[in-house]
Amino acid sequence: MQRKEFQLGDIVRMKKKHPCGSYHWEITRMGADIKIKCQGCGRIVMLPRMQFEKRMQRVEN
Asked: Which of 4, 19, 26, 35, by CA, is between 20 and 30 Å from 43?
């Protein structure tokens, strides 16, 4: 399986939508864990890199 390419500051689309209704998240921190911020409500979530890569659909911006 090919690794997905993403960078700090990218807007990504996730496979499932957030309870606020938004699919889009901004990457705010990268490392072993990825910190993302919901573009709909501003909620911040930290996910392990492997889990993030599974849930990410594509890079929007």
From this structure: 4
Beta bridge partners of 11: 26
Rounded-to-integer distance, Cα 17 and Cα 7, Å = 21
pLDDT tens-digit series, residues 4-33: 789 999 999 999 999 999 999 999 999 999
Provide the residue count of the chain: 61
Q: Sort strands 33-38 and 24-29 into parallel, antiparallel or unpaired.
A: antiparallel
For the chain, the three-class secondary structure string (H helix, E strand, C coil) is CCCCCCCCCCEEEECCCCCCCCCEEEEEECCCEEEEEECCCCCEEEEEHHHHHHHEEEECC
Look up the pTM and report it.
0.88
